[in-house]
TrEMBL record:
Gene3D superfamilies: NADH Oxidase. It is an enzyme of class 1 (oxidoreductase). Residues 27-193 form the Nitroreductase domain. It comes from Thauera sedimentorum. This is 5,6-dimethylbenzimidazole synthase.
Length: 252
C-alpha cells in the first residue's frame, strides 16, 4: 500500500535515462511536411498523444481546447484547397528571390498525412472571468498552444511526425471543418509516421533563416541590450550547453 503522501506527490527527480529521453524528444522534434508515410496511426497511439495534449497547463485550469480529428479524404481536400488559395496569396507577399524560394518550400502534408488534427480554443469556456486571465485575455490561446507542444513532443517520442499548417484564411478553415462561431481554430496539424526526421529545421537547411545564437537573446534584470551587465558565466554555459544538446551530446 502506498502512503497518503505518495498518493499526492511524485518523486521530483527523473533518472538519467528519463531525463535524456525528454531532451531527445525536444531536440529531435521537427516540423514535418514532405516525409509522411501512408501507414495508419493506431488508435492507442493517437489516444496517447491526445491525452498528452489534454494534460497541458492551461490558464485557470480552463482547458479551453477541443480536438477535431480529420481522417476523411473529402474534408482534407477542402482544407487543402483552403491552403492552396492562401499559399498563392502568401507567395505574392515576398519579393524577388525570396518569392521564388518560397514557392519551392513544401509547407504542408495535409493529403499525405493519415491523420489531421485541428486544436481549437473555446474562448468562453467557464465564463468571462477565469483565474489568471482577468487582465490578459489571450492566455486561453496561449494555453491551447501549450497543448499543441505537448502533443508534438509526445508524437516525437512515439516516432510520429507532426506538421503545423497555418497558411489559411481563418474563415476558410472554419468552413471546411464546420467550426462554430465563438470557437477559434488555433492549430491545424498533420500527423503520421515518417520516412525520416531531418536533423535541422527545413527552413534552416534551405537557408531561409539561421537558428539565432541563444546568447544574443538573453537579458539580465532589465531589457538592456548587449551593453547591459551580462552574467558572462551563464551566457557561456547557455551557449555551450545548447550546442551540445542540439548535437545530441550528453547531459551534464
Ligand atoms: C505557430 C506555428 C505555425 C507554423 C509553424 C510553426 C508554428 C509554431 N510551422 C513550422 C515552422 O516552420 C517550424 O517549426 C520551424 O521552421 C522550425 O523547424 P522545426 O519545427 O524545429 O523543425 C509551419 N510549417 C509549415 O511548413 N507551414 C506552416 O504553415 C507552418 N506554420
Amino acid at each position: 500500500m502506498s502512503s497518503p503522501l505518495q498518493q499526492i506527490q511524485t518523486h521530483p527527480a527523473f533518472d538519467d535515462a528519463e531525463r535524456a529521453a525528454v531532451y531527445r524528444a525536444i531536440f529531435t522534434r521537427r516540423d514535418v511536411r514532405g516525409e509522411f508515410l501512408p501507414d495508419p496511426v493506431p488508435d492507442e497511439v493517437l489516444a496517447r498523444i491526445l491525452a498528452a495534449a489534454h494534460h497541458a497547463p492551461s490558464v485557470g485550469f480552463m482547458q479551453p481546447w477541443d480536438f477535431v480529428v480529420v481522417r476523411s479524404p473529402e474534408v482534407k481536400r477542402r482544407v487543402h484547397a483552403a491552403f492552396t488559395e492562401a499559399h498563392a496569396e502568401a507567395a505574392l507577399m515576398f519579393e524577388g528571390e525570396q518569392r521564388t524560394t518560397y514557392r519551392k518550400l513544401k509547407l504542408e502534408g495535409i493529403l499525405e498525412a493519415p491523420v489531421n488534427l485541428c486544436l481549437t480554443c473555446d474562448r468562453e469556456r467557464h465564463g468571462p472571468v477565469v483565474v489568471g486571465r482577468t487582465h490578459i485575455k489571450t492566455m486561453d490561446l496561449y494555453s491551447t498552444v501549450c497543448a499543441v507542444q505537448n502533443l508534438w513532443l509526445a508524437a516525437r517520442a512515439e516516432g510520429l511526425g507532426v506538421g503545423w499548417v497555418s497558411i489559411f484564411h481563418q474563415r476558410a478553415l472554419r468552413e471546411a471543418l464546420g467550426i462554430p462561431a465563438g470557437i477559434t481554430p488555433v492549430a491545424y496539424l498533420c500527423i503520421g509516421h515518417v520516412s525520416h526526421f531531418y536533423r535541422k529545421p527545413e527552413l534552416e537547411a534551405a537557408g531561409w533563416l539561421p537558428r539565432l545564437p541563444i546568447e544574443q537573446l538573453l537579458h539580465f534584470d532589465r531589457w538592456q541590450g548587449a551593453a547591459g551587465e551580462a552574467d558572462e558565466a551563464l551566457v557561456d554555459a547557455v551557449r555551450d550547453t545548447q550546442a551540445v544538446l542540439a548535437a545530441g551530446g550528453p547531459l551534464g
